[in-house]
Amino acid sequence: DQQVKQNSPSLSVQEGRISILNCDYTNSMFDYFLWYKKYPAEGPTFLISISSIKDKNEDGRFTVFLNKSAKHLSLHIVPSQPGDSAVYFCAASRGSQGNLIFGKGTKLSVKP
Amino acid sequence: EAGVVQSPRYKIIEKKQPVAFWCNPISGHNTLYWYLQNLGQGPELLIRYENEEAVDDSQLPKDRFSAERLKGVDSTLKIQPAELGDSAVYLCASGQGRTGELFFGEGSRLTVL
């Protein structure tokens, strides 16, 4: 049973527009959420995180929104750039020191 | 600062052969993880170390997989014997246990023929 779900395997966006990647979770004990970015033949790299005490966290072009009642989070990238093309993984844990549970990932393609 | 180093990057073996992967975490990181990533899937935890101690190995198939972290620094993950279904990328990650942010190596891609 998947505890972290990314239901869109892929997303294609035009350069300069907004990219919205979605993630749902089922375990209400999760209280720390992260997004990782992965290029081919490389390991995932940390992008941004959010604690359940917040509903928004922003870092430059990247913003993560958390809706606890819906058990849903999203990553917004504005404006999207071709270099953002990668696989994005959503991850969740119980506390900031808990084991991370990853979704299956969404492949983002940003077209020039 | 050097990142997480893994070797080998690629390994091709025949089934029933043994294989070992090595990981050198970021200096000062006391927490080390081994993850398995199958094609089209997210990383799945195999084992987590806090210093030398394996604090979570519930997902490690102990009949064929073993791991160790000597002196709380480098770690090795071994599979013996390998099966066809073990073909995957084996990722090592380290962290400081405070922020939850993990630093991943480039992974070791295993192909079992």
Task: Throw out a few tags for this protein.
heterodimer, A: 112 residues, mainly beta, six-stranded mixed β-sheet, 0% helix, B: 113 residues, four-stranded antiparallel β-sheet
Describe, in plain words, how this protein is organized in 3D.
The complex is a heterodimer of chains A (about 110) and B (about 110). The mean pLDDT of chain A is about 95. Chain A is mostly beta strands. In chain A, strands 2, 4, 5, 9, 10 and 11 form a six-stranded mixed β-sheet that branches. A five-stranded antiparallel β-sheet of chain A has the order 1-3-8-7-6, with no helix packed on it. Chain A has no helices and eleven strands. Helix content of chain A is about 0%, strand content about 55%. In chain A, a hairpin with a 7-residue loop joins strand 9 and strand 10 (about 100). Chain B is mainly β. Chain B is built from no helices and eleven strands. In chain B, strands 2, 4, 5, 6, 9, 10 and 11 form a seven-stranded mixed β-sheet that branches. Chain B starts with a strand and ends with a strand. The interface of A and B includes residues 46, 100 and 105 of A.
Helix content of chain B: under 10%
**What is the CA-based Rg of chain A, rounded?**
13 Å
Quick check: average pLDDT of chain B?
Answer: 93
Percent range for β-strand residues of chain A = over 45%
Distance between the termini of chain B: 37 Å
The percent range for helix content of chain A is under 10%
Biggest sheet statistics of chain B: 7 strands, mixed
Strand content of chain B: over 45%
